[in-house]
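A common beginner's mistake is to predict each chain separately and then try to dock the pieces by hand. The better habit, illustrated here, is to supply every component at once so that their relative placement is modeled jointly.
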Amino acid sequence: MTEVTVKHLWKEYGNQVVLENVNLRIADHEFVTIVGASGCGKTTFLKMLLGVESPSRGEFLIDGQPLPNEPGPDRGIVFQRYSLFPHLTVLQNLLLGLDLRGAPLSGKLYGARRRRALEKALPLLEAVGLHAAADKYPSQLSGGMQQRLSIAQSVICEPKILLLDEPFGALDPGITADMHALILKLWNEHKMTIFMVTHDLKESFELGTRLLVFDKVRLDPQAPEAFGATITFNIPLKGHRA
Amino acid sequence: MLSLLPFLLLTCAYLYYSHVRLIENPGDKLLPPPAVIAATVHRYAFEEDERSGDYLWWTDSRASMTRLLMALGISACIGLILGVAIGVLPYLRAALAPFVAALSLIPPLAVLPILFIVAGLGELAKVTLIVIGVAPVIVRDLSLRAGELPNEQIIKAQTLGASTWQLVIRVVLPQLWPRLIDALRLSLGSAWLFLIAAEAIASTEGLGYRIFLVRRYLAMDVILPYVAWITLLAFSMDWLLKTLRSRAFPWADAQ
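With all components supplied together, the output reads:
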């Protein structure tokens, strides 16, 4: 069970208010899609969930516990780009999370423990359709394959929360349907909570069980930085819960 | 094949002017004919020296290469350790980066007298000179490269459970190996420069020592093949490093 609670959250950079008074309660196994104009704090919100930014005021709680202020294995992330390791093959990229968890000193598993890790990794590699590319390097993969690998890389660590920062934004429109099917399948199999920032309104309605719209409710034309954005719409959707 | 043409032209030009000068003055020492050079090389490489009993060509080569490789190895270690540390740990970067930057601007030849005074005239001073000249540049290069790794990669590794130590050994260090080889290749030129400078000033053997020794006798028949040999050695080292890079790190070329 993972419950995310946000109470009276503010984020300011100096005089500039980015987010103001955000309140939210997300139940377990939700697929939350986040939309909003550029500069409306969607990414800032995601960064705070990730732990690379901390709130100026208010609270961010996971299961009643304050969010740790650095990234950790309970929250996975898939960025639009650069989230693969170019010096590792596809299989090594996928195994990295298990390696890091299992071998604090060497950072790499060997022998029987590596075989156990492979038993977990290979089906997932199959599921994301990269079995044939196991020994390739990321630079040899297409954009869609790279994102599938990046998603699998996070999922293998079984995070409670998976954060997706415009993961399909740089892909061909033709392959996004496949990507949607994949992410929904993994979401239902692994029962995690997903937060996904997207620019694509259709995608956000299509995938989510809950849609959050970030927008500014107040605007001072003389001082545009004086007021921040907040959640203006919080819409429950049908979604694709299995 | 086209790349061989300039070499060929240079050789022809040499042969021509050597010939012309020798007609004018059979005792000319400036551009010795190929036969004289060949005889000298044979004497240096395959005959024992009368005074020392050594094969001078090879004792000089061994002495110089030992110094050079030792210095490059030490510089690579310093570069890798300090470069990663400065690139990854913000506190260390704040404390050390300006210092290293200043250090790398000291002209190494200007501190050579200090080295001779402190470390004596032995091997230590020569190796240290090369390290002083090469290591700070490698440190700066690698720390910049480490800092250039996309932030997304670092964050992703953290969400996969990486500690700082694991981040260094699984993410940063493996990506810096090919950069280290690049940095070493670029440093080869200055490393040879410092080596020959140090050998010219105080040494009893070595390629640079020999060249500056026979200069007194205007022995171009020794100097020219030695220079060619040094060039060949430097070129081979560069080629070896390049080959090592593409063999060992195939992913680095595709980026």
